[in-house]
UniProtKB/TrEMBL annotation:
InterPro entries: Ankyrin_rpt, Ankyrin_rpt-contain_sf. The gene is ANKRD33. This is Photoreceptor ankyrin repeat protein. The keyword Repeat applies. It comes from Alligator sinensis. Residues 229-259, 280-313 are annotated as: Disordered.
Amino acid sequence: MVACYAGFLDIVVLLSGCPYVDINHQDNDGNTALMIAAQAGHDMIVNYRLNYYPGLEVDKRDARGLTALMKAAIQGCNNCVTALVLAGADLNAVDPVKGKTAREWAVFTGRFETIVQIRRLLQRPRAEQFSSEYLPEWPALPELVAKALATKTRGERMQEKIRSSFSFRFPHDPEVDGVMDHMVRMTTSLASPFVSTACQTICPLSPPEVGKRRLAVPEILRAQVPNAKPPAEAKTCSGAEELPGCSQPPALASSQPRGSMPSFLPLRLLRRSSIFPEDHVPRIKLTKPPAPPASAEEQPEESQDRNTLRLPKWRYKELREKRRAAKELEEGS
């Protein structure tokens, strides 16, 4: 929980291989680690816990009846809301105190961007670009090309010229299903050469979908079962009825040893770790500067030997001895 609150991704990655960690453990307020990470806005940790921690309860409630999706919507963490919704979080869940859903909590707290994000997810509930059947073609392109190549009358050309001369161009958000939306969807799809060379798809026929519970990677590869077959022999993933067409790529099975969980982290996180660095930790030696040599006048005769320790001289003691000697001298005179 502390690692999820502070954003320590390396600690969360290391704890994913520990079999004694209760991923659904709740603190005194009923918060789980997923709730804390979603409320803090750590989308990388939320995605890693959803993908690599099997048996994670997405809709678990705290003491007030709030879920991780409600907490993320209250704080306005759009990336965490998207990850939880596509992982199967219930958008229609209602808390027992206020009787509000995650969308109503976003409206109540004034999170306008979160409301727009949830609306976009509901308008397009299935991420088609993450499926192998997705075609990276813009449906509106033929109509726009035909409109641009069509012959125009003299009045239409004059009207278009006047409109372009006297119109003002103000910056505005990209249009829904426009060219920018299509470019983003096309470059992040499985058909993109950038994605195909950087990752391996486990379930190409089952893209993320709103309201559909997603299985974690260990659940798909049966890595959490002690008597499971090696990954090279496992043809289908667990829960094949939920994820049709889910198969393990052979390159993934050959590159990982038996019983180990394959990692889909970026190379920058695999090559270097802040907890266990690859390089040897340098040894630091602390040395004290040599003491300045004392003069022969200040050094007493009995302490000339370096093996003996001298008593420290305190300034207040010297002043007290001088006052005492002066007082005895006055009394004797």
